[in-house]
Amino acid sequence: MNRSLSLIRIIACWEFHRYFKLKDQVIGLVSMLLGGVVMFTAARIAQSSDAVEIAVIGASTSFSIPENGDISVSKEQTSEQEWQKKVANKDIDGLLVIRSGADSNALPDSEAAPGNGQKNQWTARLYVHRDPAWLDQLMPVIQAERTRWEMEQEGLSAETLARVMAPVVVDVVTNVESGVSKADTLTAYAFLGATLMTSWIALAWILTGITGEKHQRVTEQIVSAVRPQVWIDGKLLGITAAAVCSLAFLFVSGIVALIFLALTAEKLPLPGSLQRLEFLPLFVVFYLGGILFWNYFYAANAAIINDPNTSSRSSLLFIPMFPMFACALATNQPDGPFMKFLSLLPGSSVTAMPIRLVMGEVSPVEVLISILLLAAGILLLRLAAGRIFAAGVLLQGKEPSWTDIIRSALGNNRESPFLQ
Amino acid sequence: MNELLVQVQDVGKSFRLVQAVDGVSFEVRSGEIFALLGPNGAGKSTLVRMMIGMMRPDHGAIRWHHPGATVNGPDPRYVGYLPEDRGLYRDQKVAHILEYFGRLRGLSGKESRAAAEEWAARLEVSQHLNSKLETLSKGNQQKVQVAAAVLHRPGIAILDEPFSGLDPLNQEMMLNVIRFLRDEGTTVLLSAHQLELVERLADRVFLLANGRRVLEGTVADVKCGVHSGYSLRMTFSKSVPEELLHAWSDDDRLFDVDRISDFSISLTLNESSIVPELLQRARSAGELTEFRGGSLSLHEIYLRALNPNVKTPDTMNKSLVRTAT
Predict the structure, then answer these.
(1) Which residues from A are below 8 Å from B92, CB to CB?
(2) How many CB pairs under 8 A join A and B?
């Protein structure tokens, strides 16, 4: 037993170092951060080049353009002719001329812009030196200016007018006790994403690792030294650890990016899901248990594939994705019967139960049953996968038949090596 | 030395309709070099896999007699195994590969590193220890493969086709490795086709065909056995006398008489005692310019044992000459 554990540790370390290269991870992290910095800087530069300066003539005193947009109004005082020259010289991007009442007659009919109201009422004209892509930003302000003028003509007092024109403020209140907050949803999807990503990383490594070892003829020499069950246990522990560490590196990258944003941006979008840390231990149990469960499935599958590029059995490797995607689709009813079923079933509980934990109401008994079923599922799948792995791992150039696979899984394949 | 190490008793194994091994029995004793011989598909690899516990025989028993052995097979730490289908992690450094295999065979990390360096020096690949395996030549990769199989100083080294794919220079290297292992007290069980190499190495041989025993014994015993004999070649100054050909063809003491060319004749006989008589008869029949004699090689015995009608290179030449004449 001690010898087996020692071998599992040796194999796990070997597999971990085969796939997790610290240097590569650091290079990846630095590249990602550099890319982020370049994109952030480029966005900032693009933002500054998008700044538009216009002059406004004839607007009321309450005319104002929101400061957080790309458009600013020049404070300079000069004549309309001078402004038009500046537009022509491209010193400014545009000149907005608003005329109302008698002043509106200054614009001849033929020149009146369509939709500006009737003659002698209210007109607006925009002089530009090129197509104004920023007009959409300006339109709500012009519309508000005209509305204000029309209401003023109807005799509304200045106070009433100010109240009507004041921007509406909606106070959003989230009831965390009885509903699903945005933070909950974010947490659930973040967990789902992390599980899927780890599973895919591990899948790629297991598939290329096992089929590669068969092609490189490494298997026979190793299984002469260790039993296949010990080999698959060590291999999967090592690969799972490497996949989790890779994901952890991505997580660190995210944290570094958030810190960078906090230092450079005005507002930091802190994830509200951080408030759900009380579920962290359960998340870890389901995350690691689920990844291990599916990794045994991947390993058994990889052992019966000769060439992943041509084998039709490669499609079986997508089976684990179905329960995971089913969970994603059922998040709108976290406590519905389908989601309850998924949260108990080993394989889908890896994602369904954490989603229910943050988005629904789960009794401790349900959590316990789910964990016990997952543990039993891992043990059974480990045994079956070990037998299938033993039957398939020495086959080079051919794939075992389905009859052989089923017999092996049931421990009833007389021709399988290693059955003692 | 020469204690019983492994007993194979009436072992059989079939795969669906194919009887791979059928009632084979033999013993391997400690300190010897034991060679399993046989054509492709004879069942050698299946037998080896059953011996090291990778496969279960359908019937019969394989008993290992060393500390740590169980009914399922030998202690993996006691065995060094070089499979016929072999390879290593091509994208890993040689030192890491050797250390890994040493550790799988029970060495500590420190012992494993020391053994890796020692074997790399012995096989002259020390300069490649920090290189990835895929950057090495095929010959050097084979050396690393051999080192990975035996660096833990096993009690028995099981080498399945150790000479396959090796050029003559590396075949000599492999011969030296096997001799070194034997000198260090390691028992060697090997299977091979290169019988001239086996003849130089093996203490005992076991010939297998269609999963069954054909012959076994020491190399000397086999050479004196039912399939063995002496070979004589005579060359005359003129054509081979016809009366000699007729007389010797009817002689029961000779089991093969072949005319190699107009001037040469080849004889295969069971015992050497009649050589002087044959020589005398030849001299009286014509002028003998050349005479060569010796025992049959293991290669010739192997071919005769597997198929008495098989044409050895010599007999093939004779047939050609016969056809031409």
Answers:
(1) 18
(2) 64
